[in-house]
Structure formats: C-alpha cells, structure tokens
Here is the input.
Amino acid sequence: MAEKITMQTPIVEMDGDEMTRLMWAQIKEELIAPFVDLKTEYYDLGLPERERTDDGVTMDAARAVEQWGVGVKCATITPNAKRMEEYHLSRMYPSPNGTIRAYLDGTTFRAPILLPGAVPLVSCWKEPITIARHSYGDLYKGTEYRVPGPGTVKLTGNGADKTIFDFKGPGVVMGMYNTDDSIRSFARSCFACALDKGQDLWFSCKDTISQTYDGRFRDIFQEVYDGEYKDRFAGAGITYFYTLIDDAVARCMRSQGGFVWALKNYDGDVMSDMIGAAFGALALMSSVLISPSGRYVYEAAHGTVTRHWYRRQQGEKTSTDPMATIFAWAGALRKRGELDGLADLQAFGDRLEQASLQAIGDGIVTKDMAALTGAETSVDTETFLSAVRARLG
Here is the structure.
C-alpha cells in the first residue's frame, strides 16, 4: 500500500451517540485510517460524557473548532424526558449543535447527496440545492400569549408603544425578534458559502408584507454584499440576488438547481425538509456549519438511528445508511487539506465520496438506498462499507 497521506493540523473530532457512534468508528477504521495518518483533537459528545462533564465537553469542542478551524461531528442526542430516564441524566442537556452554532455565530448549510440511479421528484433538478437557514430568533424564540378576552395588546419598547390588535374576544398573540448582528453574521456566512461552492446565492423573504422585520434582513444582506462581497462575486463569476419568497419558490421549481438559497429561520426549516425529500431522503443530506470568521463543522444531518441501535444491541445486523457520515468526514478532510495547502488530502476527500457513490452505482446499497435507486437487494452496513473500501484502492 502507498504511504499514508500526512496531515499538518488536526481536525476537531466530535463523537456522538448510538448507531451513528458505531458507524463513526467503523468509517474511521475501514475508510480513513488505511489511507490517512489521521490527526484529530477528540471530544466525546455522547450523552454519558456530557453528563459526566455537565456538558462542559460541548463548549470545549466549540472552543477547539474556533482554534483549529475545522471540525467533524457525529450525530448526537438532544434528550427529552424519556432519554433523561434512559441515560440517568441529571438535567435535560441542550442540543450540542445549537450550543456550537451559537458559540461560533455560524449558519448551517444543508444539501442533498445525489445517488446514482435516484431521480429527484422535480424532473428539472440536476444539481443539489443548498439551504442556508438562519437558526436564530423568529418563531423559535417567540413570546406567545393567549388573550383571554376583549382588550388592546401593545408592543412596548424604548419608551414607545405600538398597538398590535384591539381584541373583541379571546385570541392569541406572538412577539418575536432578531438582531442586526445576527442577521449580518448570517449574511456573511451565506456569501462565504456561495464563494466556497462557486455558486449563485439567493436570499428571499416577504418584505412586501413584513416591511420592517423582513425588510431589515433584505437591507443588511444588500449592505454586506455591496460593501464586502460584490467584487469577489464578480471575480468568481457568480451572482447574488434578492427576491420575494413566493417568487423564489416558483423559480426554484423551474431551475436546474446548483445554487445556495438563504432563508429565515422558519422558511429554512420548512424548505430544507422539502428539498431533502424531493431529492431523495432527509437522511441523505450533507451538512456544514460555517461561521463568519471561516470556521467549519461538518456533520451528519440526521439523528442517531435509535431504532437500529436497539436492534443492534439485541445482536441483529442492520442496514443503516452511513452516507451522510461518510460525506461529513470527506468534507472535513477536504477543507483541512484546502486550508493547509495539502492537495493529496483534498483529493482523498473527493475519492472517499466518489468511492461511496461508485458502490451505489454498482448496486451495493443499504435498505433505504434500495428504495430510492430501484435496487432489488440491499446489504448490511458493514458490507456496504467494505464495498466502499474496495473501491478506494
């Protein structure tokens, strides 16, 4: 075997939970270690370690990404009451993704993984559409109030009042917020992602209806573009444009894909699920967190596959799809190689993705892939990983 590819700077490795934790170890051992002299700074974000450290390990991992610039993260559990009991937790720990995203002030970009033989439900789509969701504020941090009866509800701030509605009877009301700083960071991350991919950037909201709230998003995006990115976009041969979200949806359905679509929090939540399902499956999406300062975290954009984990604990073999985790590792290795000027490490990231897709093209698929590609048979996870390994050379 040829000499292993060397690394200069570590990748921040964040381990996870359940079935994806098992696949994480298998992918490292089977697909990466034979070819790369892997250098990582390891953090265990599995629930037992988060409990032991009172979630301090999550902040340690976030700070490490800030230091080293590139991280790769396994899927993790965000516990509910049932999980608290199952894992004997002292408290309901927050989402590690949310903690890391907030610390880095980053934006998550998700794009479908196109499988050989899988045809998107929208026939004109040829290239992946990347969704950028502004995961801050809006409905998800809104303050709600059940109005019990007649009365006037007002918005009060900085010594001024504004009437929301004069209720004649019971109803509901909500107040939500955002900040210029958060919107500006979101815009910069979106422009950076478009440059990274060499693709056009769309931004859409509904400023004709929400003239102040959505209008602020529109204006900040334009200010950041004009002041910081216009010349760089021109040099890269790509464009930025704003349009109303209803127009953007219509354009999207007629497009060939291959662009980055920036959306507010709720819009991004909805459209990322639509894009994922229309291209194939929600579990078959790549995901990368990009901060305005140029930090990257690649991750599998799905859960910990708990159902398969329980079956595995009972001694059953499972046909669990590892593609999103493989692509997370490939993306992190490629970005580390790009930042460090290591062409062979960048090339290996490409090879890892290509070998996975080649195995699928040759008809070696897990159960969920078979449903998408029309394959008549499927294999277990280990057999699929072995097939990818064989095609890596």
Summary: The chain has a mean pLDDT of 94. The first strand starts at residue 11 and ends at 15.
